[in-house]
Each structure stands twice: as structure tokens, then as C-alpha cells.
Amino acid sequence: MARSGNPEKINKMKKYTSISDITSLSSLIDEALFLKKNPYNFQSLGKNKTIVMLFFNPSLRTRLSTQKAALNLGMEVMVMNISDDGWALEFEDGTIMKNTAAEHVKEAAQVISQYCDILAIRTFAGLVNKKEDYNEKVMSAFVKYASVPIVSLESATEHPLQALTDAITVKEHQKKVRPKVVLSWAPHPKALPQAVANSFVSVMKLSDVDLVITHPYGYELHPEISENVSIEYNQEKAFANADFIYTKNWSAYTNYGKVLTTDSDWMINNKKMLLTNSAKFMHCLPVRRNVVVEDAVIDSKNSLVIEQSNNRTFAAQVVLKKILENG
Ligand code: AN0
Ligand code: CP
């Protein structure tokens, strides 16, 4: 599809499960910022339209901000914690379903599609089987079998609503044309997915920023994601003159799903922030205080984390709007 020329075609969305579903990031950001100022301008767009939100995993922000976005557009919302309340699902074709799974995703996706106009799903990486996660076993089955547009609320390898939020937040707070944005790994006691980091890098590659990733050896992201991005293994060097420090823990991609170090030397603290160009601090939340980031940083005037979570609503709202407009 053409990227320019026909404004009707720009960002008309059939689904939003990946940063690659964005055709024009800058116009999507502009429209999200318009919605932030005018959240109730399109209340009739969602009239008699329903979004179903399925959660295979916990959530605070994604659940409430996406619900708020849908309500702002006049939609009805149905939410289900499918892991707790639904039948265990089978994803393989041709299996003899003698074990735990009581229902196949083939029926489940078609059935749910009859009850809604948009289907949004959260399904985290299992972090055991790299191939299964990077093939997006769960999300791609819903994309295949559902007859309504699918929105990702974080899948095994991407968190595109978070990344759109982050791009909006950088745009709002940047003080120069090409700010230096540093994605810094930080320690965490548990193995976390690469999804947030993957989507953040992907969206920053579409933005006019000087992007640097810093992490300990062994934490390299999928090579296609980090292609053409500079990696600086020395965190303090990476922080020099940074305008934004975006922090996230992820488990190893190569030694898949493993926690290789929990070295507190990688925690974000005030001393490191002093190396930056008075950088803004960003994190998608939830965050473990004094493990990932020191209190003094997250509580400082340069911390954007609360504003960032506010922008989740408008990122979701612009995506739902584009999908509803597509028809
Ligand atoms: C999840 C993750 O790292 O993918 C969700 C982040 C939005 N984080 C945790 O499980 C702590
Ligand atoms: N940032 C984010 O997705 O938060 P939740 O996991 O609380 O939804």
C-alpha cells in the first residue's frame, strides 16, 4: 500500500498486532495527540460496536486504558480473563484432544468473533520454546481464525500499543530534532519477555532519533530487531548526552528465556542519570523500585512514567478509531 498520496489509505488498519501494521507513524502520533485534546469527538463512531478483550495474563494499564479508549469512542466493552475463566485452549491442528485442552482455538476464535467487532488479546511469551513464541503461536491462531480485526495487548514478541505510547511520549517531550534515546536493560529477579524491548526498538527505528541499546553481553535482542541499531555494552558510555533513558528488563534471546545476571550494577540510579543531558526517564510499568530503578530517579521531575501510562489511552484510542473507520 502507498505510504503517501492518498490520506484515506494512511493507517487504515485491518489489525494492530505489530509495529509493522503502522503505515505512517507521524500521522498516527498527530492523531493520538488530537484525541488527547478531544477525547470525546468521535463518540458516534463506536455506537453499537463492541470490543472483547481476552487476557491470558495479568494487566493493570493495558486493561484499563484500552477500556477507557473504547468508552471514549462510544464502544461497548467485554473483558474476560480467559486463562482463569475460559476453557483451556488447544492450538495444534489435528491433535487428539485427550489432555487438558477442552476447546480448540478454531471454534473459540470464530465464536468470539460473533460477539464483537474488535477482538483484543494479551498473551505473553512462554519463554520456553523460542520458535513457538517467535511464531506467535497464540496470536497468529486468533488472527487466522477470527473474522474480526485483532489488536495485540502484548503478545509473545511485541507490545505495539505500549510502543506507540512511547513514541507519542517521546514526541511530546523532545526538545531537539533528533534526540538521543537509550534503551537500557536493567536487572530483574524473574525472566521477562523481550516484547516491550522489541516493539520499542521497532517504533524508534521509524522515528527520527539517535537510538542506542545498552545491555550486558548475552542480552542481544533478535538480530532483525537490532539490525542497524548501535549497541553499547558499557552502560555509562551509552548514557552520555542521552535525552531519554528508556529502561526495561528482558530475558536472553539467544540463551532463550534465561536470566543470565541480576547484577545491581545495571540498576538505573541518579549517578548514571547525571551522565545524561538531563534525560527524561521512561518505563512502561509495572516496575520494581530499587531493583530496576532507584526511588530517586522514578520520583524525580524527569520521570515520565505516569504521563506515559496516561498516553496508553490515546495510543489505544487512535488504533481503535483507525480500525473502526476501516469498517
Ligand atoms: C511484562 C513484560 O515484561 O512483558 C509486562 C510489561 C508491560 N512485565 C512483567 O511481567 C513484570
Ligand atoms: N505497560 C503495561 O502493559 O502494563 P500492564 O501490564 O499493567 O498492562
SSE string, helix = H, strand = E? HEHEHEEHEHHEHEHEHEHEHEHH
Question: How many strands appear in the DSSP assignment?
Answer: 11
pLDDT < 50 stretches:
1-8
Strand order of the largest sheet: 9-8-7-10-11
Bound small molecules, which ones? N-acetyl-L-norvaline, phosphoric acid mono(formamide)ester
What's the Cα radius of gyration?
Answer: 20 Å
Helicity range of the residues?
Answer: 25-40%
Overall pLDDT level: 96
Structural class computed from helices and strand pairing: alpha/beta
Assign an overall shape: globular
What count of helical segments does DSSP give?
13
Q: Indicate the proportion of strand residues.
A: 5-15%
Largest pleated sheet? 5 strands, parallel
State the end-to-end CA separation.
Answer: 17 Å
Name the assembly state. Answer: single chain
Provide a concise account of the structure shown:
With 327 residues, this protein is α/β, with parallel strands linked by helices. It contains 13 helices and eleven strands.
Q: Could you describe the 3D structure shown?
A:
The chain has 327 residues and is α/β, with parallel strands linked by helices. The protein has helices spanning 25-37, 61-72, 82-85, 105-113, 130-134, 137-145, 160-173, 195-205, 223-226, 235-239, 270-273, 295-298, 305-326, and strands at residues 50-55, 76-80, 89-90, 103-104, 118-122, 150-152, 180-185, 210-214, 230-231, 244-248, 280-282. It contains 13 helices and eleven strands. The chain is globular, with a radius of gyration of 20 Å. Mean pLDDT is 96; it is low at 1-8. Bound molecules: N-acetyl-L-norvaline (AN0) and phosphoric acid mono(formamide)ester.
